Amino acid sequence: MFMKLFLKPFIVFFLLGGITDGIAFGSEKNQTSDTEFEAKCRKAVAEYLQYINDPNGGIDPTDSTWRTYTENRYCDAIVSFGVPALNCVVQIMKDNETNMSNFYALSGVVHKISKRQFEQSYPLRSKWHGAQAYGKAFIEWWNKGRVQWDDEFAEYYMAWKRRKAGEERDKAYNKLKELGCLSLSYAIETITTLGDIELWDVVDYWTDGKITEDFNTETGGAGDKITFVSSWWNKNKDYWLLPPVEDAEFYSKQQISAADIALFSRLVDEWWEYVLNEPSISLSSRTEPYVENEYFQKIIDMGPPVLPLIAKNMEDRGLLGACMYDAFLNISKRWFSDEERGGRFVKVNALIWWKTGRGDTKNQFNDRYQSWKNNAGNPPRGWKDIVDDNGRLPYQDLSHDPELQAYRSLLALGIDALPYAIEKIEKGNIDLWDVVDYWTDSKITDDFNAETSGAGDKIPFVSSWWNKNKDYWLLPPVADISN
Q1: Which residues of 39-64 are buried (b: 16+ CB within 10 A; e: fewer)?
Q2: What pLDDT score does 206 carry?
Q3: What is the pTM of this model?
Q4: Omega before 460 cis (within 30°)?
Q5: What is the mean pLDDT of each run of 10 residues along the chain (483 residues)?
């Protein structure tokens, strides 16, 4: 994700699903392979596994607790590498999934480094049982689940803060600590932004007392902790941040250029800086002020090539996801009827459609086109007769007007149906020009008028226009969508 953590409307947007990580504080970093470091880490892991498998070693075969496996100098050697070693250890864990002893031992190592705990009821852990349950849960969380850790921190932090005192507050506090040091960036941001120094003890636990040691060394224990936290994090965050969950494979599958990725990231940052410095927006609990401005419009103007990036960010359950859903609708023009939504939030429908539902677009287009043809007037009305002031399709009941009802249903398929509309126009169905005009934000009409002064033959023009522009408008196949 590309956004900066924003905590002024924290309480409001916690109800929408949490807070978002980002570039300034972040939860992830771009890492290049440090071969020397990785070699040292792998050597330490190999020595550790050799030790625990040595029948003459110090492991008690009758004791299956983590304590037996982790309280030795070989484990300590790996742990001493800290968070940067996690990626290496997790990869070796994956290679040892069929070796129960090695897998279990390495699970103890990642637990000791990360301090990440999973309750028995935690969704990722409840899928497995027995000695390997933690390790299996950690790997799945590492691969996919940690994209939601911003929501986890928000949930556990608020659960703790809501409780004033007593056993329930202590339980909530312990659950917060069990998120582990990989949630460190969110605690740091909360301390510096909200001034919540109560979180110092959590950070101290996650860093094995390192932050307190550095504070005492630099200030003699008498300085301002909130100011110190910010400077300490700037010095040390590269040690504590993780490689991103989404990797280059995702971008290559989506055929997103490096230039588009960089531009998208920059525009999101510029948009958020604007929001951050505009009090009338930053304190709002509605999404409209966040998206109805020139900075967010620049993101939308990037068009279909960045829909994979937008869809990826829609998975965020907080403000970022809500705003990116708005961009998704504006670009894709895919609107969902009440029947299609089935009682779910429309953003959920959009994500399901993006990942799995687009395979049926051709059949839907043919059915809806025929339905519209059966109800269209002479001449048929156009998209400007149906959209609202913001260019969006209305959700109100149109059963009293079968033509507009059928036309809305056709327009709602969005740009994924463009190839099928173009194909029909090439065969002479020029009545679909208005549909293509809506889906392309009138780009096709503008280009037609520019090239022919509005007096040319639209049918051959459509064919040449599509050949020039289809790479911009075509969406990646469903099979290529990364989970």
Answers
A1: ebbbebbeebbebbeeeeeebeeeee
A2: 94
A3: 0.54
A4: no
A5: 36 34 39 69 94 80 78 93 90 89 90 83 51 80 67 82 87 91 87 90 95 95 92 90 58 63 85 84 79 95 92 77 90 83 65 83 95 93 89 84 94 96 96 97 96 91 95 81 45
Residue with tokens 């339905």: 371
